Write a sequence for this structure.
């Protein structure tokens, strides 16, 4: 399982670099600066959570449990909802499309997935360490 997480992280990392390069070079020519700033926030948080996925994949290989697996799912969900909604908003603003205000509330749901993912990751490692400690000292 953790091999898949490492592969997803690698793919998402490459995608993040490509999106960042596009944001730095091409996007500025087609959307206003405030939209570029929104896009860059999406790229930044995606990159943070690519590293979180790598860490979670490694930890899952050591402490395979449902809490760490849930953290992995939440990080991926957060990337899709948080960063994805920011990318969509940038596209919509750049095109001057109206009537898509409903996308804005998706972003904090993705942010919440990131927060809960970090909590689950910490709980997953903590519970695994307690179980290992008990099995070695029982």
């Amino acid at each position: 399982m953790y091999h898949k997480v490492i592969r997803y992280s690698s793919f998402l990392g490459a995608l993040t670099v490509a999106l960042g390069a596009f944001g730095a070079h091409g996007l500025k020519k087609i959307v206003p600066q405030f939209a570029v700033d929104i896009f860059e926030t999406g790229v930044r948080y995606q990159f943070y959570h690519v590293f979180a996925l790598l860490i979670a994949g490694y930890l899952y290989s050591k402490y395979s449990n449902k809490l760490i697996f849930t953290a992995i799912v939440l990080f991926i969900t957060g990337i899709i909802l948080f960063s994805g909604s920011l990318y969509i908003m940038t596209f919509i603003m750049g095109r001057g499309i109206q009537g898509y205000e409903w996308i804005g509330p998706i972003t904090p749901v993705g942010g919440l997935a990131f927060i809960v993912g970090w909590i689950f990751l910490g709980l997953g490692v903590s519970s695994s360490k307690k179980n290992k400690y008990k099995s070695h000292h029982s």
Observations:
- The CA atoms of residues 64 and 128 lie 8 Å apart.
- The mean pLDDT is 89.
- Helices lie at 2-25, 33-62, 66-95, 106-136.
- The longest helix spans residues 106-136.
